[in-house]
Predict the structure.
Amino acid sequence: MSKICKVLSLTLFFYSVAVAELTTDVYLIRSNYILTMAKGSAEPLDGYIQISKEGLIIDIVEGEPSETLGGTLIDARGKIILPGFVSGHNHLWQSAFRGLASDQELYGWLNSLHWTFGDFFQNGDMYNFTLYGALDQLANGITTTLNHSQNVAPTYDQYLEQFEAEMAAGQHFIFSYVLDENEPSAAIRKSKLLSLIDDTSRRPGPHACLGFGLHGTGIYRDMDFHREEVNLAKELDLDMQIHYLEEKAESFRNGQKKFELMAEKGGLWDGLVYAHFIHVTDKILETSAKAGAKMIWNPLSNGRLASGLADIPRYLSAGLEIGMGVDGSASGDVCDPFQNMRMGMYALRMKDSNAAVMSSIDILRMHTLKTAQVLEVDDRVGSLELGKFADFLIIQPGSPVFDPYSTVVLATSANDIESVWVRGQKIVENRRFPNHDMGAIKNEVARRVARIVSDQTGNN
């Protein structure tokens, strides 16, 4: 993440501490299965987490909490506590269009969604679709997401509704911003991004934006525009995430050839994050890892679209830093990190006929701390450690626990999540939201989708 994002995040953090409601309770979470996912930590902690009024972890220790500590004790013994999942690549608005083009690969699927319905979006559509997508992720245990926003809607204001919806949802997020190609100059495009960042830092109250990045689109549109994106990302010290080498046909058509052009335009640096990155050559992999580029792996979406299987052990051996994402809510369909981990692990094990390819703790850490590290927000989320936000899940195991890491990865679903906490506040309990009417939101989404489909059908 950028220096400007870190400055923004610190501004938001200290402001949120200053204005936090004094009536917010202090919690002590007691469990014999606390999975901190901190670096170097492998043994479950039998102890408690102490959470401040501001929603920060102020202690996490073995044993019983003292009565002198005060606060509300949550007795979760027998239940598993783990950090909220971090998803490093998502298109939240797509939540309204699940199940489309079930027999299509990437470009056939894009044609069935983006290029069929996008022109018929109206004011409020992107907001409602994104809000639903963010809340659905929260219900599935994803407390931090990178919203790889997309300018599918006809106007730029309608595109920006995605940001406003994330602000309303309560999920921690990084907004991957798309530059407005319709503006006449690079200076105006830059000023619009800076205005959004400035506006965000001035908003009252604690809110969930952890910072910004760029969604690089120039590689598929115009390499001069790609250079502009790269230069702006470097100037502001932003990470830039791009879809790259996702589909096999795309790789041989022009994707691999563009790697040299990217390098010539300065587009290979430690701020580059690949989404998907499946069909790589040895040179592309090794050069990328050496440059400090990173990757977000999206097993559910890659399987659904028949994009292929990234050779994760090979990538890790090359030194590539890897996180995980559930990708589009209509290409991964169900934004379930438990399914995502199993899909990835099982596919790799089938490929090599080797059950030791990835361990449960390794892939769980990849969907929590490692993704936070790729997104450069691991100072605040991704593990349960002192000073970080108290973002965590309480899971009621559905069977006896032999190894809590394996129970989470192999034998748990989103239905086993008892509650989801963000900044020390319970925001989902048994898949219900105290601050949002999900029934009304779903009805509004269905109404808007029906109108889009009707308008598109009537136009043909």
